[in-house]
Design goal:
The chain has about 400 residues and is an alpha+beta fold. About 25% of the residues lie in helices and about 25% in strands. The structure holds succinic acid and cobalt (II) ion. This is 50S ribosomal protein L16 3-hydroxylase.
């Protein structure tokens, strides 16, 4: 796509302009981002998903047993019968993994790296429903799917922003409203991280939240160092060969500057290993939300070839995540938290695997005759990231 072309989705500005002026910086309200948008799911279908064991869902009731009562799914049909007429919200996570028409919405966000996209959460709110004023640590596009919702936005928050005392929900104790809008189906509000927001259903409504993933600095450091440590031997230690003796004028108990420098050097040596850093990052960013849904079966190379030659189609498991990159030794394919190094010659296959809706004899072409190519496909089937489409 050409990032300089104005996009309806972004209210007539280009992806370049959006990224320069708004992304991670300031909110943007877009009227009719998706003109005539009709929610592919109705409220009953969304409630149906919240009955499923594997799908994460929540209900927030403003005046429940406690103020802002949080209930966690899976729910039963009775739960829904007993809910009040107004002032509650049902939120269902990662609906894109279960409803292909919802996943198709992600096509609109091709101007952003796919590995930054987390999921599409869908909320249904009874009139007056909302989850309270709060802030999130990630970017979000709030697309109105059905009915009308009033979105109020406020101050930029941080870890010190006072919250209500609540065991489960992070509701702001103060909300300094700066703007409000009523969104109709097809309207969309982009919010950067940490902007206080408060959505209230004007009438029965559904909102689609396209959320993004960004690891916290603490996650990057703890996870990367855990990953790194696997490759380090116990023998590699802080070392100070050639250090000078404690001089008479110095205190033996003081940790001197040269010790700190040695430590920094040890850290830098490992932290700046780009191959390992990228390997860890790709694995981390492609970890599936529901790993139990990414499970495949071993397939014999001959059977795989036969199936594809007979017209079988491989598709990405909707719960799997794929990405690729390149390092000094070749290409890296990341699939659902795992990685493999591949030669430069497999670049086109890698790109096809990551991007294609379906893999079949026609688009695989010559790769079917390539043993390494088939081996890779077989590995991804075994891992569960690729699966045969149902006939
Ligand atoms: C909602 O859809 O009710 C909540 C979405 C959000 O505020 O992040
Ligand atoms: Co939010």
């Amino acid at each position: 796509m050409n990032p300089a072309i104005p996009l309806q989705l972004l209210g007539g500005i280009s992806a370049d302009e959006f990224l320069r002026d708004y992304w991670q910086k300031k909110p943007l309200l877009i009227r009719q981002a998706i003109p005539g948008f009709e929610s592919p799911l109705d409220p009953d279908e969304l409630a149906g998903l919240a009955l499923e064991e594997v799908i994460e869902s929540r209900i927030v009731i403003e005046h429940g047993k406690t103020p802002w009562e949080l209930r966690r799914g899976p729910f039963s049909e009775e739960t829904f019968k007993e809910l009040p007429e107004s002032d509650w919200t049902l939120l269902v996570q990662a609906v894109d993994q279960f409803v292909p028409e919802v996943a198709e919405l992600l096509e609109h966000f091709k101007f952003l790296p796919s590995w930054r996209i987390d999921d599409i959460m869908i909320s249904y709110a009874a009139p007056g429903g909302g989850v309270g004023p709060h802030f999130d640590n990630y970017d979000v596009f709030l697309l109105q799917g059905h009915g009308r919702r009033r979105w109020k936005i406020g101050q930029t928050c941080d870890a010190d922003s006072p919250l209500l005392q609540h065991p489960d929900l992070r509701i702001l104790a103060q909300f300094e409203e700066s703007q409000d809008w009523v969104l109709e189906p097809g309207d969309m509000l982009y919010l950067p991280p940490r902007v206080a927001h408060y959505g209230i259903a004007e009438d029965e409504c559904m909102t689609y939240s396209v959320g993004f993933r960004a690891p916290s600095a603490a996650e990057v450091l703890t996870h990367f160092t855990d990953f790194l440590a696997q490759f380090l031997s116990d023998e590699e230690r802080y070392s100070d060969a050639g250090m000078s003796a404690v001089k008479g004028s110095e205190d033996q108990h003081k940790i001197q500057r040269d010790a700190l420098d040695r430590l920094k050097q040890l850290l830098q040596e490992h932290m700046s290993d780009e191959r390992l850093l990228l390997t860890w990052f790709g694995q981390f960013m492609t970890e599936p939300r529901y790993p139990e849904l990414v499970a495949g079966e071993e397939i014999d190379d001959g059977d795989l070839l036969q199936a594809l030659e007979d017209g079988a189609v491989l598709v990405r498991n909707p719960s799997a995540r794929l990405a690729w990159s390149e390092v000094d030794v070749g290409l890296l394919l990341f699939s659902s938290g795992q990685s493999v190094v591949l030669p430069q010659s497999m670049r086109e296959l890698l790109k096809l695997i990551c991007a294609a809706d379906a893999l079949h004899q026609d688009n695989l072409g010559q790769w079917l005759a390539d043993e390494d190519g088939r081996k890779l496909l077989g590995e991804l089937v075994k891992q569960g990231s690729l699966e045969f489409a149902d006939e």
